[in-house]
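$ fold --in a.seq
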Amino acid sequence: MTRIFSIFIAALTLALTAPAHATPPDAMDVSDELFGISDTHLFVLRHTDDNLGQYTKSARHVFLVAIDLKTAEEEYWRVSLTVRGERYDESGAPLGMVTQRQSRPNETNPYDLIGKRGGLPISAAALRAFPFPKAEILVDTKTVSVKAEFGPSFAMKRALANERITATNRNLGQRIYEPVRLSRQFTTKQAWADRTVPLDQCKFSDVGRIWVSPEKPRVQLVRAMCAEEEETGVTSVILVLPPVPAP
């Protein structure tokens, strides 16, 4: 029991004396998984992985996000929260890692929801297997664009792409649950709201094109993957590029 108290005091002292977001470092990642499509929305599962400022803990949220194909406005539904951490006995000796699924109010079955919204499940693997025309991604300080051997081109201003990438932090900060962090100087919501994305380190890749229906235009999807050189604080989100108007 004395050892547990000593460990608690040491951890509390570290949390109170260390600068915010410093030791141990906050490792917070975001990754989109392509999930479904309807006439009006793209659906992704947005995964977050947060070490809660600890070396032996992880909180993983999953949200279903509906992205409007015209405006890129996002709607969120909570799917799950899983927490993994070290467990100790009464003497303070580690017993190993424990994973717990923590149910929360208003969680959603993503398959039920996209069915109600008129959507169909779709995967990135299915898109890769479809014989789309070979696409070339062009990125500069002003534009992110995709050009194919035939068919329309797609483009988005880089400033708008940056805004949609960084908006994920704001949206998650408003909706994330509040697992306890090692440092109590700020909450988990604050940590997500303050999280920065290294926009100058973003790399863009072609996810594929989707024909929603014969009456609808094709949808071009691009993945933006942004991380520091040491690959910490990864943000990997899917963007919908609008078609370039015909001349």
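$ fold --in b.seq
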Amino acid sequence: MRIKIILSAIAVVFALVLSFFYFSSGIISNSAGEIMVEIIDDDGHIVTEKTVDFKAGDTLYDVLDRHFNLKVSGSEHDTFGRILLGIDVIDTDFQTRFIYIEIDGEEARKGIDYLPLQDGSTYRFSVRQPH
């Protein structure tokens, strides 16, 4: 009986550790592909429009970091992942301005560590002000 309790406790701890690492790492791609990245300046003009490739195992952060100059706060292990503060020519402070992300015209509801890479999709980064 005592061995069953000990084994059950070990199994629970092991499951918790595995789930922590699974949920604390970013969303990785299962396959290779390409995405279009659009960067919009404060005036609403497209300043960068670039097709970039990704490979299996990449996160959106990996792809952006490989192809653009990024300014981020935090780490992938923070609760909400990294906060994108700047990408190429746009720069924000997250207090008075932030980077708004859209995928194929739809609002992204997660950060750059937790957005899936979708082959053929357009990722748009623009500056917004909080309401």
